[in-house]
Structures are given as structure tokens and as C-alpha cells.
Design brief:
Blueprint (H helix, E strand, L loop, with lengths): L1 H11 L1 H17 L9 H82 L23 H6 L3 H5 L6 H15 L3 H10 L4 H12 L5 H7 L18 H22 L10 H14 L14 H12 L8 H5 L11 H7 L6 H10 L3 H10 L8 H22 L2 H21 L1 H8 L2
Helix pairs in contact: 2-3, 6-8, 8-10, 9-10, 10-12, 15-16, 16-17, 17-19, 18-19
Length: 434
């Protein structure tokens, strides 16, 4: 701002400088005998023109500076709103989680009380018929804690204050389906409650504990992932099949969560189940050949890799082949976790290089951050390359693309801005000066 003021002061002194030059010119002309061919009016017109041009350019720069400041303020406001929305969602999630914990504690307390009463009444006393001479034998049958929780009186849960009644009832229904090993029923339950998918995702790992064989239940739920009646090119048009595939992936992710909280993986997944999972993976593998890798958002590739990761059968597959599948899922939020679960962390520099060479700089930047490879793959040059490519094709896209595609391009650009504002603030200055 100080530079602007000093420049404006210099502009104001231009007229006085011209007047001084006029006096000097007149004095020079008085000392010569022959009149100069170059008249003062011509010089004055020249300098007045320069003065006018400089002032016009100065005002244009002022307008551009104000416009840039306005855009910067709007961008900052949008980022603040997004941050506020994220905080609000986190608070809502924490509150919902607390309500579920309260419901679970209440259910366990009631179940223990009922179990104590049933155990005291169910003691079988066997005697020889003579009172006082027989030795009583006590027989107690141990109860599964998950089964007990499933048999809690729903009316008690309904009438309890401060508890999410509907969510508690849904959880008990989910536990019952897991106890019965009803894979089809679980699919239907999730499909009917997709509005509460975030809550269900948290409940499934707990409900799977009630299943006699959780790994087999999840493996059975994969049946129908590839519907023979639906050709590959028509899958995106079939909403039901897409929903089924997403549910399959979610159940496999929940199995991984269950395993991470278990003391022994072998207690959950037997070698027999692993062999069956390997057979399913071998059946799915050839179907990945026809998938387009350019979008990086393949459900089929995600399911294949999640199957290998969840059932712990990565050692049965070649690491190079698995790493070549990562670009198929590079845009999915679970990509980094999948790579770690599959033991592909050391392969990530090669994967990121493939993404860079194929022009998918944003995916490359995300994985570089996830695996601390930003020194090897600096985000600033990658983003500059992305902007260069965007500029080359922006005119063609604006003419030939649909309004939806144009809006998506704008959102992608804004996501880049937010990404570097939050993750790499020092690079944002270099990018804005680019």
C-alpha cells in the first residue's frame, strides 16, 4: 500500500516536472541564434501523452488489485464456511456416538440383570427323593454376551430416557441377522437404511461379533457381486447392483475393523475361509482387465483389493500386479489405507510416478502426502503441471463440454486450492505467483 501511495505522489508531480522542462527549453532557445526544428508544443504533447498513458495504466492496476483482494476474501470465507461445516459434522458424530454408547451400556446392564435372574431360577436340583440326604447338582449354561444383548427387552430400550431408541433397535436387528448368518438379510437391512449408512458402518463391526463365523458371513455376502445377467458396460446404469457392490465393500472393511480389534486373526479367519476367499479373488481377477484406469474410481478394483486385504491373502498374489491396480482406485478415499493393508508402502514411489506420467497429478499429490513422499514428489511442480494442462484444454472443454462437466472442472480447481491451503500453505504463495 505504501508503494501505491508513493507511485501516486510521483504521478501528481508530473505536471510540475513538465513545467520545469518548459522553462529550461525556453532558456535554451534564447541562447541560440537559429530556431530549433523541434517545437515545445510537440514535446509537451509527447510528455502529456505519456502522463495520460501512465495514469490510465495505474488506475487499471488499482482495479485489478481490488478485484484480486475481493476474490481472496471470498475464497477465505468459503474455506471458513467449510471448516465450520466440518466442525459441526464432527460434533454431531460425537453426540451420536455418545448416544450409542449409552444405549449399549444400558442394554448390557439389562442383559446381565436378566441373565442373573434366569440363572437363579434355572438351577436344576437333582436328589434321590429323600429330603436332606441327596447332594444337589447345579447346572448352568453359559450365555454369549452378544446373544444376551440381542435378547434385551426392546420395550425397556424404548422407554429409557437419553438413549437413541431407533438406532438401538436397528442395532439389535443387525445383531440378530449376524447370529443367523443371514447375508441376504444384512444386504436388505443396509439397503433399507441407507440414510443412516454412517451409523450402520460403525455398528456392523460390533454386530459381526455375534456371528458364529463372521469371516464366512462376509464371504457369503459377496455372492452376486458380478451379476451374470448385467453386462460390464451396463453396470453403471443398474442402481441396485451398484448399491450391492458398495455394501460388499463396506462389509469387507468392517471385517478388517473387527480383525484389528481381535487378539488373534486365526480365531476369526480360518485357513479354510482364506482358501475360499482366494478362489473368489482368482475368479474376479480376469474381470479387471476391461476396466478403464483413467478415472481412478473403480468399484470392481476396490472390491478385489479389499477382498485380498480383509482376508489376509496378499501373500498369494504378486506385489507388482497388485501395485499396478492402485491407479484404478487412486481417487477413492480408502486408497492409502488399502496400500498399507496390502503391504505396498514400498511400491508407492513407482505408483505415484505412474500417476504423474499419465497426467493424474492430483491423485499423485494425495498419495505423496499420505506416504510422506512430498520431498521426492514436490506438490508445487505437480500442481503447476496440472494447471498447465488445464490451461491447454480449458478452451476446448468450455466449448465442447456439457454444463455439468464445466461445473465439475470448477469444483476440481477449488478443491486444489483448499488442498494446498490446508496441507501446504507455503506452496500456495508460489502457485499464486505462477
Amino acid at each position: 500500500m505504501e508503494d501505491t501511495d508513493s507511485f501516486a505522489t510521483l504521478m501528481d508531480s508530473t505536471s510540475s516536472k513538465i513545467q520545469q522542462l518548459q522553462k529550461a527549453f525556453a532558456e535554451l532557445e534564447s541562447y541560440r541564434a537559429v530556431t530549433l526544428n523541434l517545437k515545445w508544443k510537440e514535446l509537451e504533447a509527447h510528455f502529456r501523452g505519456l502522463e495520460k498513458s501512465l495514469k490510465r495504466r495505474f488506475h487499471e492496476l488499482e482495479d485489478q488489485e481490488k478485484e484480486f483482494e475481493n476474490k481472496t476474501m471470498k475464497a477465505q470465507e468459503i474455506v471458513k464456511k467449510r471448516e465450520a461445516a466440518v466442525v459441526a459434522k464432527e460434533q454431531a458424530t460425537l453426540q451420536r456416538l455418545q448416544e450409542k454408547r449409552d444405549a449399549a451400556v444400558f442394554a448390557i446392564v439389562n442383559a446381565r440383570e436378566k441373565h442373573r435372574k434366569v440363572s437363579s431360577k434355572g438351577i436344576a436340583i437333582v436328589s434321590d427323593g429323600d429330603e436332606g440326604h441327596g447332594t444337589p447338582e447345579v447346572e448352568e449354561k453359559p450365555m454369549n454376551s452378544a446373544c444376551v444383548a440381542a435378547e434385551v427387552n426392546l420395550q425397556d430400550v424404548k422407554t429409557s430416557p437419553g438413549i437413541a431408541n431407533v438406532e438401538s433397535m436397528s442395532y439389535l436387528e443387525l445383531v440378530k441377522l449376524c447370529e443367523e448368518m443371514d447375508a441376504g438379510g444384512i444386504h436388505k437391512f443396509i439397503s433399507d437404511n441407507r440414510k443412516n449408512l454412517a451409523a450402520i458402518r460403525e455398528e456392523v463391526p460390533l454386530a459381526l461379533r455375534a456371528a458364529p463365523n463372521a469371516a464366512l458371513l462376509v464371504l457369503d455376502s459377496l455372492e452376486g457381486f458380478y451379476d451374470a445377467e448385467v453386462p460390464n458396460h451396463d453396470v453403471k446404469k443398474d442402481a441396485n447392483l451398484l448399491g450391492l457392490r458398495r455394501t460388499c465393500i463396506m462389509l469387507m472393511e468392517c471385517l478388517s475393523v473387527l480383525l484389528s480389534n481381535s487378539e488373534s486373526v486365526s480365531d476369526v479367519i480360518s485357513e479354510d475361509i482364506k482358501d475360499k476367499a482366494k478362489a473368489v479373488a482368482e475368479e474376479w481377477k480376469p474381470r479387471l482387465l476391461d476396466i478403464d484406469a483413467s478415472n481412478g474410481n473403480s468399484l470392481e478394483a476396490h472390491a478385489f483389493l479389499q477382498l485380498i486385504a480383509s482376508f489376509g491373502i496378499a501373500s498369494n498374489f504378486n506385489e507388482e500386479e497388485l501395485s499396478r491396480l492402485i491407479p484404478l482406485v487412486s481417487r477413492r478415499r480408502q486408497a492409502a489405507d488399502l496400500c498399507r493393508s496390502l503391504g505396498l508402502s514400498e511400491k508407492m514411489p513407482g505408483v505415484i510416478k505412474v500417476l504423474v506420467d499419465s497426467g493424474r497429478h492430483i491423485d499423485a499429490v494425495n498419495l505423496a502426502f499420505a506416504f510422506d513422499l512430498t520431498e521426492q514428489f514436490s506438490p508445487v511442480p505437480l500442481l503447476k503441471s496440472y494447471l498447465d494442462d488445464a490451461r491447454k484444454f480449458s478452451h476446448v472443454k468450455s466449448v465442447n463440454s456439457s454444463p455439468t462437466a464445466q461445473i465439475r472442472n470448477i469444483l476440481d480447481s477449488f478443491d486444489i486450492y483448499v488442498l494446498f491451503q490446508l496441507r501446504y500453505p507455503n506452496s500456495l504463495i508460489a502457485i499464486m505467483n505462477y
